[in-house]
Amino acid sequence: MLFIEQEYAVRLSIRAVGDYLKRWGFTPKKPIKRAYEQRPESVKQWIDQEYLAIEKRAKAKGGEIHWGDETALVNTDVRGRSYAPKGKTPVTMAVRGTRQKLSMISTVTNQGKASWMIIDGAFNHEKLIEFFEALVADGKRAGKKVFLILDNLSVHHCKPVKAWLAEHQADIEVFYLSSYSPELNLDERLNADLKHVISTRVPVRTKAKLHAAAKNHMAFIETHPERVKSYFQDSSVKYAA
After folding, report:
1. 14 has which bridge partners?
2. By CB count within 10 A, which of 31, 44, 165, 200 is most buried?
3. How many angstroms separate the CA atoms of 130 and 141, rounded?
4. φ, ψ at 166 (rounded to 5°)
5. Nearest to residue 165, comparing CAs of 133, 118, 123, 187?
6. Of 111, 56, 58, whose CA–CA distance to 232 is shortest?
7. Contacts of 91 (CB under 8 A, 6+ apart)
8. How does DSSP assign 134-170, residue by residue?
9. Across the beta sheet with 64-74, what order do the strands follow?
10. pTM value surpassing 0.85
């Protein structure tokens, strides 16, 4: 309101601003997170040059582009919105004193394929290589080389991983986002999908139940390619659709 008054010398109430926004087609949404370190020019360069080069190489080699990411799963995560009478804060029932945590690494493709591995314990280079092996095996069955895009985490560049990739470069090539930008990685949308579903179900108090809830939803995602394809429909990532 203050900005409008300063810029246009017009004083509007909050309700009036809301009415205008609604009339113009705006609706309240939960915003995506964007890193302070992100440089828009670097992001644009990656999309316009590096990604197009990856796409061209994948087509020439008859390969398949995968977007990969790791995430932590906890049974105390609370997401989304709720409703309550005016002046009162909504309350969500959460597990207390029994915090359980798992990790997951996954990939998605614009053809609707989802690959995933749930990890009980710390994610490290050994788990990453194990996941690479599964991707390569799946790629060989489909007759397609794997072209994998990952974030710039240190584990992705460690010596054991580099050595393994060098020995399997005929089956898999790995590329990295040049500027940390979560909204560029399509697999972030799968992570958000999974966490939202887990947080809206009856609280899971044991690691076994957390694992089962994650496994059940990932199995559902895996058998619903249209749901995975929808991750690629956001205007900011249409380049990968």
Report:
1. none
2. 165
3. 17
4. -65, -35
5. 133
6. 111
7. 84
8. HHHHHHHHHT--EEEEE---GGGGSHHHHHHHHHTTT
9. 114-119, 101-108, 64-74, 146-150, 172-176
10. no
CA angle 83–84–86, rounded 5-degree value = 125
Distances from the Cα of 111 to the Cα of 86, 105, 118, 186, 226, angstroms? 44, 19, 22, 12, 9
Kind of pairing between the strands at 146-150 and 114-119 = unpaired
Residues 6+ apart with CB under 8 A from 94: 76, 78, 203
Q: How far apart are CA 147 and CA 143, in angstroms?
A: 13
For residue 201, the one-letter residue type is: R
- Least Cα distance to 148 among 174, 115, 180 occurs for 174
Q: Are 141 and 177 in contact (CB under 8 A)?
A: no
Which residues is 107 bridged to in the sheet?
A: 68, 115
Q: Check: CB of residue 129 under 8 Å from CB of residue 164.
A: yes
The DSSP letter of residue 235 is G
What is the per-residue pLDDT across 88-112, written as a single tens digit (0 to 9) for each? 554 455 555 577 889 999 999 999 9
CA 179 vs CA 49, 196, 210: distances in Å? 13, 26, 33
pLDDT tens for each residue of 19-65: 888 888 877 655 555 554 556 777 788 888 889 999 999 999 999 99
Torsion (CA) 193, 195, 197, 201 in degrees, nearest 10: 180
